[in-house]
Every structure is written in C-alpha cells, then in structure tokens.
Amino acid sequence: MTALGTNSRNIVILASVAVAKGDYLRLDLSKPNAGVGFGENVTTPNYSGFPNGRRPGDDTINTLLYFIGNQNPAVHEVVNHNDVLLGGTFPFFAPPNQPLENPAIDNTQN
User: Fold this and answer.
1) Mean local confidence (pLDDT), 18-23
2) Whether this model's pTM surpasses 0.70
3) Which end of the chain is flanked by fewer CB atoms within 10 Å, N or C?
4) 51 Cβ neighbours under 8 A, 6+ residues apart
C-alpha cells in the first residue's frame, strides 16, 4: 500500500478493520433499519456503514479507495448503482441478472 502512496495512518485503519472485523454484513436486530446503504459512502454525513460492518448497498470500492488515497474524497470510481435495485426488505439483495435475448450482442452468455 505504501507503493500506492497510502500513509501509515490509513494502512492501520484498513488493516485493523480487515483483521478485527473482516468483510461481513451486519444484522443487528436491536437497531432500526436505516436503509441498505444505497447512495451513501464513507464521506456521506452520518454514514453508518464502515467500519461497523457493511450494508448490501455500501460502495465498498469507494470506501477502500478513500482510505488508500489517504482520505481524499477525490479518489473514487464512478459506478454508483447496481444494474438491478436492491430490495427494501430482508434479505435486500437484488434478483440475479438474467441473460438477454441475444447473447452474441449483449455478452450475457451463461
């Protein structure tokens, strides 16, 4: 990570989360559901995802890039939504994409 320019403070943050918490989806029934995280990222005010466990809609790539880039919000990618919307109730995950009618054109071959 140092070869990417990440400072030691952010390396410690990423390492502590990866080692201590891992990549998991949180299900805490004692807290009301505030959404699946769609449209939020680590720079969103009152963000409740990372490092408290990620939600299905959290942008994990932008969260990683934020810390790899030393908490610079300008370091991000621009894929900001799923092809299919997440559900509003448990288990929240979107149905899988199905092949389209012409796999030769749309690259959806199984």
Assistant:
1) 72
2) no
3) C
4) 13, 16, 17, 21
